[in-house]
Write a structure and sequence with these properties.
Elements: H1 2-8, H2 27-36, E1 41-46, E2 51-54, H3 56-60, E3 64-65, E4 68-69, H4 72-84, E5 88-93, E6 105-113, E7 118-125, H5 127-163, H6 168-199, E8 208-210, H7 212-229, E9 233-238, E10 244-246, H8 248-264, E11 271-279, E12 283-293, H9 300-303, H10 315-321, H11 327-337, E13 341-346, E14 352-359
Parallel strand pairs: 9-11
Antiparallel strand pairs: 1-2, 1-7, 3-4, 5-6, 6-7, 8-10, 11-12, 12-14, 13-14
Helix pairs in contact: 5-6, 6-11, 7-8, 8-11
Length: about 375
């Protein structure tokens, strides 16, 4: 539009070469065509605050009603730009449901043109950017809180240990507690690093065919001590199925986390089942790995949140078991990076069933099990 306006005045903008000018009657259509390809809302407002130009993106965002701006904040921004004679910017937080596509935040910039007769308004949906920023802020706040707990406990236990040098039994008790907190802190840091790496990867680099039989076998080996301590019988049932496509170590981590979760929330003397089976309903392209426990179960209100970072349906029990609140979040990201998904069914008093669904590898690839 700037180029077209300057062409009317007989000069081209710096760095822009103007060919043989089109007929003047073509210029409005050229400007409209240029605006229509923009992915941001672009509008032109006249002195009467009527919208004389609005591209498709602007209309899709619901910025215009009739020939007026729909948002009072945008009208105020246009007035500020016209009053100052310079560009003005703002960010508008929107109420849910205000606009058809329901963005929650938009960034707007108003610039006067034609000696203030018109104002061009550029509006960009920044909902996703703000959501990511909010998630990062919440993540940092949660990390700070989670790290303070074991670090503070270690500090207090160290002071108590100093005061109990003449009591061997107390020394043993405090030392054991310090070891527990140090282990918890080490686990938390390791899972934070792992989760950070998973979140920055859209998928698995150089995926390989992986046999789930070997994945389950290693996961059982890693969790055998925890299961034995609670006298929990872990019962595997692994069908002979094609290999899945992905990273073996990540898949072992996902299965270990599911088993750890099942063991931690199951009463002593119960059983945990782990089954590998083809996807029901005739979907040969996927394999389901199912971990079922006889634990306390999960309230319906918590089911949608169990895969969130640091979320604990039972915080007191998580602290007692040394849980970090990151295990299921890691499982979710591993599933997503492998092109799969993880789901949960649970009912209080009836245990929980977690289903990890993964795509099988290409038929010509051989299993690494």
């Amino acid at each position: 539009m700037i180029a077209l306006r300057r062409r009317r005045r007989g000069r081209a903008p710096a760095g822009v070469t103007v060919a043989d000018p089109a007929a003047p009657s073509d210029e409005p259509q050229l400007a409209a065509d240029a605006l229509s390809v923009l992915h941001v809302g672009a509008l032109v407002v006249d002195r009467a605050e009527r919208v004389v130009v609005c591209n498709a993106a602007g209309r899709a965002m619901g910025l215009v009603r009739g020939d007026e701006l729909a948002l009072p904040q945008l009208r105020a921004l246009v007035r500020e730009a016209r009053r100052s004679g310079a560009a003005a910017e703002t960010e508008v937080r929107l109420l849910h449901g205000w606009l058809p596509r329901e963005p929650t935040a938009v960034a707007a910039r108003a610039t006067p043109i034609d000696d203030g007769r018109h104002v061009i308004l550029i509006v960009e949906d920044v909902t996703e950017a703000r959501r990511v920023a909010d998630m990062r802020r919440d993540f940092l706040a949660n990390v700070s809180h989670e790290l303070k707990t074991p670090v503070g406990a270690l500090s207090l236990l160290a002071e108590a240990l100093q005061d109990a040098t003449d009591d061997p039994a107390a020394v043993q008790r405090f030392a054991a507690r310090m070891q527990h907190e140090a282990t918890r802190l080490s686990k938390l840091v390791a899972e934070l690093i792992q989760l950070s790496r998973l979140e920055t990867a859209d998928d698995v680099a150089e995926p390989q065919p992986v046999g789930l039989a070997s994945v389950v076998a290693e996961a059982l080996d890693r969790t055998r001590l925890a299961a034995s301590a609670k006298q929990i019988d872990v019962r595997p049932d692994v069908a002979a199925l094609p290999p899945v496509r992905g990273n073996r170590e990540q898949l072992v981590t996902a299965v270990v986390n599911l088993l750890d979760n099942a063991i931690a929330y199951s009463p002593e003397g119960t059983s945990v089942g782990i089954t590998v089976r083809p996807r029901p309903a005739g979907e040969p392209t996927h394999v389901d790995l199912v971990v079922k426990d006889e634990g306390i179960g999960i309230e319906e209100a918590d089911l949608d949140r169990v895969f969130e970072r640091f979320y604990r349906a039972d915080p007191a029990r998580s602290r007692a078991t040394g849980g970090t609140g990151l295990g299921l979040a890691i499982v979710k990201h591993i599933a997503a990076n492998h092109g799969g998904q993880v789901a949960v069914w649970s009912k209080p008093g009836h245990g929980s069933t977690f289903t990890l669904s993964l795509p099988v590898a290409d038929p010509e690839l051989r299993s690494t099990s």
